[in-house]
Amino acid sequence: MQPPARDLGRRIRDTLDRLDRDVDAWFATADPAGLPYLMPLSFLWDGEAMLISTARTNPTARFLESTGRIRVALGPTRDVVLIHGELGEVIPSAELPVEVADAFAAKAGFDPRKQGASYPYYRVVPLHVQAWREVNELAERDIMIDGRWLGPPVA
């Protein structure tokens, strides 16, 4: 028997908790012709966007910089969060505030600053977010549209 569907406020709270708590996610980009590329990356959520870092030569970075679009998947298939986002900005590792870079390194267990200029940070801004656990949550899975949460999270 499946648990009852969560209401919108609970789904938003659960998603925000996952963004704060989870360390890694699957990031999908595509080249300008549509050829997809999928890669696991660590991230830091700042309350508005996801901060990631990867080699500028990596297909994820190249495709994100050329198209400005990305999709992110968090969680297992029975508690999934899907994020459609856009590139907010590329931040050279030497220009990211030290406290933010330190927080990223502490959470990820990886410090891109040690890789030099070849590992910038990418700020990924969510535009559309969906969250569901079971089929009874599919009909109401949208929790953010056009960059706006559809309601407040529950306390």
UniProtKB/TrEMBL annotation:
InterPro entries: Pyridox_Oxase_N, Split_barrel_FMN-bd. Residues 25-135 form the Pyridoxamine 5'-phosphate oxidase N-terminal domain. This is Pyridoxamine 5'-phosphate oxidase N-terminal domain-containing protein. It comes from Nonomuraea endophytica.
